[in-house]
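**Backbone description:**
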Amino acid sequence: MRALAMPHQSVQSIAPTPSYLSVAIPRPADACYRLFADVERIPEWLSVVRSAYVSRRDQKGRAREVAFLARLRGATVGYTCRYRHHEEDLLLAWSTTPGSSLAVQGFGQFVPLGDRAALMTYSLELDLGPAGSLPGWHDSFFDGHAASSAMSDFRDFAQRAL
C-alpha cells in the first residue's frame, strides 16, 4: 500500500465541491449539449425557473442573452444571463449581467463516453445578495444543493427527451 502522506504531514479529506459536479448520462454527448444549449427549454427541467425568454441571439441564432423569472419562497425574481457557446468543446457558460439583483454563473460541458453516453460536468454558483434581501428558493432541495439538483434534473430530462 502506498502512503498518501508522510506521518508528520496532515491529510485533509477531499469532498466534491457542491458547485462543481459530474454525472454520466446514457445519451450521446453532442445531443446532450444541443438540448442543454436550448435555454428556452430550461423551465421544462429546472423547477425553480418559471420562464426563459431569449432577448438576444448571436449570428448563428444561438441564445446570447436570456431573461429568466425564478421562483423564490413567496416571491418571483427576474434576472438576465449572458451565454457563451463553445461548441467545439461542447461547453455552454453563463453569468448574470452587471447590476442584477442576484448573481448566477456557471457552465455545463459534455464529454463523450463512447458513442452512446456523455460525462456532464456542471458548475453553478448562486448568490441571492445580502442576507434577508431576497427569500430562499421555492424548492428547498435546490436551496441547499443547487448544483446537484440542477444537474440531476437535466440528466433525467435528457433521458426522457433524447
Notes: Residues 103 and 127 are 5 Å apart (CA to CA). The first helix runs from residue 29 to 37. The first strand starts at residue 20 and ends at 25. The chain is about 20% helix and 40% strand.
